[in-house]
Amino acid sequence: AQSVAQPEDQVNVAEGNPLTVKCTYSVSGNPYLFWYVQYPNRGLQFLLKYITGDNLVKGSYGFEAEFNKSQTSFHLKKPSALVSDSALYFCAVTRGTGKLIFGQGTTLQVKP
Amino acid sequence: NAGVTQTPKFRILKIGQSMTLQCTQDMNHNYMYWYRQDPGMGLKLIYYSVGAGITDKGEVPNGYNVSRSTTEDFPLRLELAAPSQTSVYFCASSYRDRDNEKLFFGSGTQLSVL
To answer: What residues of chain B lie within 8 A of the CB of A40, using their CB?
Structure first.
């Protein structure tokens, strides 16, 4: 069975500092991995995906994620956080069908 | 281009009532999905459809039904509403062949069953 885990319910970071939101996955075979962001009272928005190729994937709004097969991780990163990055972030996995399995979400708080 | 539109935005139901959550998309996407979001639980897939006339169960289908008579519409039916169905419901759609994991979400329906 496929699953993803986001070990932190909340991440707090000061504006201008680097941020990391953690995700680990469990899937047999090659995973397709995704990050989505949810702003208050909105649906989820696609940020980035890893299918194959470079382990460092770049996405929207300056975010990137690093795929690490040996650690089965896909952490979301940004070099310099903005207050407007404050939102709920979801990691997701699929085997290529489009039926995504989502993690429980991590709230990112960026303080001025 | 409105994307994915869900109605209503909010609804309160009494136990045992039924209702239909509407979802329509104008992007000509083949794939459509219904998810529910509960605090601290992420999103769980209820039902999905790969095209008109084709639907299939997701992780948590019990208590729900769907239909897909057109490419654009994918309504979710709740029969005999129960408090456990209190949740935020999201409809989503995606392309069939390219980027089918890039889902486009509606803004959600907040449902309370009392």
So the answer is: none
**DSSP H stretches of helix in A14-112:** none
- Residue A61, φ and ψ in degrees, nearest 5: 60, 25
Q: What are phi and psi of B105, to 5 degrees?
A: -105, 150
What CA–CA distance (Å, rounded) separates B46 from B34?
5
Question: Is A104 in contact with B40 (Cβ distance < 8 A)?
Answer: yes
Q: Report the share of chain A in percent with pLDDT over 90.
A: 77
Q: Is residue A61 classed as helix, strand or coil in its secondary structure? A: helix
The C-alpha of B81 sits at a distance from chain A's nearest C-alpha, in angstroms, of 23
* Of residues A46, A103, A105, nearest to B102 (C-beta): A46
Report the alpha-carbon distance of residue B114 to residue B111 in Å, rounded.
Answer: 10
Predicted confidence (pLDDT) per residue in B15-68, tens digit: 999 999 999 999 999 999 999 999 878 899 999 999 999 999 999 999 999 999
| Smallest CA–CA distance from B103 into chain A, residue | A46
Q: Do B101 and A34 make contact, defined as CB atoms within 8 angstroms?
A: yes
Q: Residue B29: its chain A contacts at CB < 8 A?
A: none
CB B51 within 8 A of CB B30: yes
- Who's near B101: CB < 8 A, 6+ residues apart? A32, A34, A49, A94, A96, A98, A100, B94
List beta partners, residue A75: A66
